[in-house]
Amino acid sequence: MRGLRAITASLGLCLLAGCGSGGAGSQHASAAGGSAQAGANTVTVFAAASLQETFSTLAARYEAAHPNTTVKLNFGASSALALQINAGAPADVFASASVKNMTQVTSGGSATNPVTFARNDMEIAVPPSNPARITAVRDLVKPGVKVTLCQAQVPCGATAVAVFSHAGVSVKPVTLEADVKSTLTKVELNEVDAGVVYRTDVRAAGAKVKGIEIPASLNASTDYPIAALTKAKNPDGAKSFLAFVQSAQGKSVLEAAGFQQP
């Protein structure tokens, strides 16, 4: 009986504390206020991997302005997040790196009225020493040059393919990664000679990589739409967070990271 009482008490405490574990791409931004208040007023945001730095900053600032609110962030490839949302994954907001993936969600009835809030274009990332001496897109097809790209269904992969089409080259990657952060990591670890990623991710990596500019005549960009989800558990919080992302403060954070206004 004593053991049963202990188990029951333990379960009760677990329920009160909200026991559970998030996936590898999940992140909780801290919030002021009691745990009961935060749990009752959480905004869950599914966002493209390339938004990791900016949305982490925006979440912290949003929480500072809304002391009893917690923003829970889940980052990943937009294509994968769209599938999860349409399959019923619990979320309040979706920020995609592709209009195509947002359309998947709206067509599935999981979101309405998306708004484009940012634009991003591509850049070549190489190790700081640039061992393959990459200076232009055409160098990516030289014999022996190891290139990494995002998978074709991922926005950063599709946008890279558009760059190659503009340049009239056919790049054969040695590895295809699940999202832009995984692609950039291959470059940071010197496992490849180059990767084609978003300009903002090169900037976020700092001294870990060197960026090679792609001329505007060859470059390609992708728009970032954001929307509240129709099955949001916190529709008011979703609406409020969307407004914050589109506010002057939100635009300032995005522009500082290298995103362009649409």
Automatic annotation (TrEMBL):
InterPro entries: ModA, ModA/WtpA. Coiled coil: none annotated. Keywords: Metal-binding, Signal. Residues 1-24 form the signal peptide. It holds the Pfam family SBP_bac_11. Belongs to the bacterial solute-binding protein ModA family. NCBIfam families: modA. This is Molybdate ABC transporter substrate-binding protein. It comes from Jatrophihabitans lederbergiae. The lineage of its organism: Bacteria, Bacillati, Actinomycetota, Actinomycetes, Jatrophihabitantales. The gene is modA.
